[in-house]
Amino acid sequence: MIGGLEVFGLWSAHPFAYPDGMRICVKQRRRGAVPGRLMACVVLLAILVGPGAVGAADAVGRVAFATDVVPILTKLGCNSGGCHGKSTGQNGFKLSLLGFVPSYDHESMVKEARGRRVFAGDPDSSLLLQKAIGRVPHGGGRRLGTDSPDYQVLADWIRQGAAPPT
């Protein structure tokens, strides 16, 4: 489910929507897949945690590498097996497969290539973003628009100093 949480339970789909559009949907996988009390606990926890708890910038607007940046790279396919996540990387840039080792990915993005991939003084000039928007040739083609929320998160992370995972 995009933009929500999907939990498999005992009976048919039971959707719950937050006011901001985030949805939780409990769906049947097979009878007896999850005991009823456990399912109730999972759904209650999801409701209590709320829609912005995972992968959202913290209260002061800091972007976290492991929970904000890596999921974007995964969503865009950058760290997939067919791109920079394969064992040899792609065109001199290598990431861990599906972001499995955030510390390695951070090192690759920030310190390799003489630091050209990210430029905190002018994030929009960073090679990482230039390639993603198609301004600089990229074998994977254009992946983002400058007006996309994902672009903004990446630019904010760079602007904030491209902090490593904690």
Provide a concise account of the structure shown.
This protein is of the alpha+beta class and 166 residues long. It has 5 helices and 3 strands; from the N terminus they run E-E-E-H-H-H-H-H.
Mean pLDDT: 78
| Total individual domains | 2
Q: What's the total helix number?
A: 5
* Helix and strand run: EEEHHHHH
Helix content: 25-40%
Distance between the termini: 28 Å
Q: Could you describe the largest sheet, including whether it forms a barrel?
A: 3 strands, mixed
Q: Spatial order of the strands in the main sheet?
A: 1-3-2
Radius of gyration: 19 Å
> Uncertain spans, ≥5 residues at pLDDT below 50?
1-12, 28-32, 51-57
Strand runs, count: 3
**Approximate shape:** globular
What is the beta-strand fraction? Answer: 5-15%
By secondary-structure content and strand pairing, the structural class works out as alpha+beta
Distinctive features:
3-stranded mixed β-sheet, alpha+beta, 10% strand, 166 residues, globular, single chain, 2 domains
Structure description:
There is one protein chain. The protein has 166 residues and is an alpha+beta fold. The chain has five helices and three strands, in the order βββααααα. The protein has two domains: 4-49, no CATH class; 65-159, no CATH class. A three-stranded mixed beta sheet has the order 1-3-2, with helices on one face. It has helices spanning 36-49, 65-76, 102-110, 127-132, 149-159, and strands at 4-9, 14-17, 23-28. Residues 1-12, 28-32 and 51-57 have low confidence and may be disordered. A hairpin with a 5-residue loop joins strand 2 (14-17) and strand 3 (23-28). The chain is globular.
